[in-house]
């Protein structure tokens, strides 16, 4: 049984992080047995160093930056972090399970996700401060310290207000409308990027959408707006991923 390391929270079910949701979708889709080990923010680096999990990036000062998701596969002795690397590992190591990346379309999948990510640029500062509402005191202290260092301002001052907030939201909607326009070119119908075929692109996009749904709240005006855009495409995608959303 694999061990899946995820970032804990005070949200019912605890799962919230967009990147760890990508890995959860992948594991559930492939039907690989696993259990979740929940980790507080300040415990991520010590855990990774202890287990030999490599950093996924580096801070501006050159210090290693350790992040989740990560998995441990006892059958191979492998520890690996980063949702994309985990997905590639799962396809390679478990070839008899459904593929995350359809054969021959790996490059197109990655290109689509990269293009999708550019459409989210305007929304980061609006949602990041909201994460603080769902963390334990220990994780909140770490989250506040590291985000304030990155943004060079107090956490409460990161989100745009007034006209700037409206403009950021409109830009975000236009970005999702662009992506919706791409997907309308599909000749087949279905809620997924490849119409009726689920793939990495859905897990990546879905990870960010479910993050927004959880952090803002299912009953929030933000999620009501997002889920209705594109004639309900984004809400339909999350509904289509429901079968892969079990928290174990």
Question: Beta-sheet strand percentage?
Answer: 5-15%
The top-level CATH class of the largest domain is Mainly Alpha
CATH topology of the largest domain: Glutathione S-transferase Yfyf (Class Pi), Chain A, domain 2
Q: Give me the side-by-side strand order of the main sheet.
A: 2-1-5-6
Q: First CA to last CA: what distance?
A: 12 Å
Structure commentary:
It is a single chain. The chain has 248 residues and is of the alpha+beta class. It folds into 2 domains: 2-93, Glutaredoxin; 106-244, Glutathione S-transferase Yfyf (Class Pi), Chain A, domain 2 (Up-down Bundle). The N and C termini lie close together (12 Å). The chain has helices at residues 18-30, 44-51, 83-93, 106-118, 124-131, 137-151, 162-183, 200-216, 221-240, and strands at residues 2-7, 34-39, 57-58, 64-65, 70-73, 78-81. Strand 3 (57-58) and strand 4 (64-65) form a beta hairpin. The strands form 2 sheets. It has a 4-stranded mixed β-sheet, with helices on one face. A two-stranded antiparallel sheet has the order 3-4. 51% of the residues lie in helices and 10% in strands. The longest helix has 22 residues, at 162-183.
């Amino acid at each position: 049984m694999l061990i899946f390391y995820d970032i804990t929270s005070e949200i019912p079910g605890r799962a919230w992080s967009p990147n760890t949701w990508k890995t959860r979708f992948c594991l559930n889709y492939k039907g690989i047995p696993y259990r979740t080990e929940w980790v507080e923010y300040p415990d991520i680096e010590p855990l990774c160093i202890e287990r030999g999990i490599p950093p996924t990036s580096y801070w501006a000062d050159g210090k290693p930056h350790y992040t989740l998701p990560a998995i441990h596969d006892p059958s191979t002795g492998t520890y690996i972090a980063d949702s994309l690397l985990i997905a590639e590992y799962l396809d390679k190591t478990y070839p008899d399970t459904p593929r995350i990346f359809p054969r021959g379309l790996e490059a197109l999948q990655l290109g689509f996700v990269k293009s999708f990510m550019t459409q989210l640029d305007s929304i980061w500062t609006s949602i990041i401060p909201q994460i603080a509402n769902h963390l334990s005191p220990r994780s909140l202290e770490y989250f506040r310290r590291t985000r304030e260092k990155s943004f060079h301002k107090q956490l409460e001052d990161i989100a745009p207000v007034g006209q700037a907030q409206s403009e950021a939201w409109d830009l975000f909607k236009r970005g999702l409308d662009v992506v919706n326009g791409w997907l309308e070119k599909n000749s087949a119908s279905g809620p997924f990027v490849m119409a009726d075929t689920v793939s990495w692109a859905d897990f990546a996009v879905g990870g960010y959408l479910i993050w927004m749904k959880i952090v803002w709240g299912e009953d929030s005006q933000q999620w009501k707006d997002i889920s209705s855009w594109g004639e309900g495409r984004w809400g339909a995608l999350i509904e289509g991923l429901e079968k892969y959303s079990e928290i174990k």
